[in-house]
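agent> fetching stored inputs for the magnesium ion docking request
agent> found them:
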Amino acid sequence: MAGKFRIVIALISLFAVTACSRIHYVTVEKIRDSLPAQQVVAGFDIDDTVLFSSPGFYYGQFNQDGPGGSNKYGSSPLKSAVFWNDMNGQFDNFSIPKKSGRALIEMHKQRGDKIVFISARDSSKVNIVPKIITQCFGIQNPDVMLTSNPDKTSFIKARQVTIYYGDSDSDITAAQKVNARPIRVRRSHLSTNTYSYDKVGELGEEVLRDSEN
Ligand SMILES: [Mg+2]
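agent> prediction call returned; pasting tokens
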């Protein structure tokens, strides 16, 4: 009986190790070493990739500052132009740059690569996102696209992005559709975003190690 038990434990351990090792982890140094000598176009998602922006999104979704304690942005805050005006125009003052995002951007800056930001956020009349990107990452006049569309495929293609960093499953699949190299950045444990994050490391993408922060 004890022998059988040991075999079962051994099999479970083997499966666990196999499941873990399926994930292809990389570091910033490994990515740098793998890039061609010539300059590339590096594309970055924004939310949960380079900025920890959950505070603003959390307020947007869960505030009780409307009439009678309701949400001031209505029942579908992410469809509210007022929300996006506040998010893009004010709340990013409270977004925190991710260490991993800084390290990635720094690496591409040192190589002289072109850096573009492609976010699925809705566009808005007021927009401080480029200013925040400049402040956090030292990029002057950053190329920031707010696509208002979760499918970034055509935007990644239009900017001729060759390597694309994102946290969502949809970031990875969009890059793959146009043969850009997708790198997964992990969300912070404090992120309030649960959308499109079921297949980390399972889509054939590389995963940046310790990229939660
Ligand atoms: Mg994101």
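agent> quick read of the result: Helices lie at 2-21, 28-34, 54-62, 81-89, 99-111, 129-137, 153-158, 169-177.
agent> awaiting further instructions
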